[in-house]
Amino acid sequence: MDFRFAPEDEAFRREVRAWLKKNLPSDWEGHLRDESGWGFARGFARKLSERRWVAPQWPVEYGGLGLSHWQQLIYNEEMSYHRAPLGYIAIGVGWTGPTIIIYGTEEQKRQHLAGITAGETMWCQGFSEPNAGSDLASLQTRAVRDGDDYVINGQKIWTSGAHHADWMILLARTDAEAPKHKGISYFLLDMKSPGITVQPLIDVMDNHSFNQVFFENVRVPKSSLLGEENRGWYMATTTLDFERSSIGGAAGALRLLEDLAAYVNETPRNGGTLVGDQRVRWRLADAALEVELGRMLSYRVVSLQARGVVPNYESSTAKLYNTEMQLRLAHAGLEVLGLYGQLKPKSRRAQLRGRLERQYLWQTAMVVGGGTSEIQRNIIAMRGLGLPRG
Ligand SMILES: Cc1cc2nc3c(=O)[nH]c(=O)nc-3n(C[C@H](O)[C@H](O)[C@H](O)COP(=O)(O)OP(=O)(O)OC[C@H]3O[C@@H](n4cnc5c(N)ncnc54)[C@H](O)[C@@H]3O)c2cc1C
Q1: 3 state DSSP class of 142
Q2: Domains of the chain by range and CATH?
Q3: N or C, which end of the chain has less CB nearby within 10 Å?
Q4: Residue 292 appears among annotated catalytic residues
């Protein structure tokens, strides 16, 4: 075991860091999920594309740089640490593209991959439905074959970014008689197709980031089917594996921890500073331990990938721990800041620019998205410990 990165990997980290310094405003706060934020994220994606850095981990023939898994981790860590706005490209790069690379036809690869790496096309994910979240295979949206088309009717929910997206990865039922996992197909759907209605859902942060999407007799050509009809579930699990092994989040937590450490060092309390309070010191020391552990769990996933092993319950472990750790960290931050921590960024008295209030609400959502903590625990119990299904 060698805990050092290779010199060329360290050089790559310095390069990404310098680029981010140049291309993000000096007072960049990240987490802009309002309309101006989406516009900024789109422009940022275009800038990344000039370096082939939208999806640098993809093979060169698909518009990437063929980065090693460790370099991809470094890229993710730097983006996360610097709070880079990747929301516009995340679904296309992180899970749509890799699924198309594995299962798509040459025609589908030609049609879709270049748009993603150019930072031009935004994707959304139409998986969850009002009665199909954790039990995704219960989904009811129907796709019925009609000549050379499929006709889609039904509803999706929690569809992040659907109001800006050009395309959607969509799961729909094509065989209502088959066992539930065996009657689902996977489509690449043009969001401009007639019959699609997108309705906003305003989240706890007061942002419009996810939506309900309704389909009324939406016609899609047969060529938009990914892989074979009724085999969609198996491709969807690949997509979810990519989603859960999105790694590097602990670097964002490290940044927040550094902010908190600086804050307690500078904030007067009882004739000294907050750092003199033993409880505050212990709280931050515990947080530091957890951030480090989260980082190691992510590194374990990468080390498997680097050896050509597909991570299994290890991705669930990293997802579970890192999202819950970031929620605990945000909570610790709220406590350290006292009532100031609960002020919104626009408040004159907000400390650390209202970051803690934003982080706490955001991390509350993160333990649910991509499969809830309970589902990750089930996976770890079954696949990691070999326990029977509960
Ligand atoms: C910020 C955010 C963005 C999202 N974006 C998208 C998106 O773009 N596209 C998309 O398709 N979906 C998206 N989702 C939806 C997400 O995938 C679902 O919320 C998630 O899968 C959980 O489903 P649910 O909300 O229906 O909860 P449910 O499945 O109804 O679960 C409710 C509660 O019951 C628990 N539970 C359920 N089943 C079990 C079980 N077997 N064992 C133990 N506990 C169980 C859950 O853990 C949870 O606490 C997003 C969610 C969030 C928070």
Answers
A1: strand
A2: 7-88 (1.10.540.10), 123-230 (2.40.110.10), 245-384 (1.20.140.10)
A3: N
A4: no
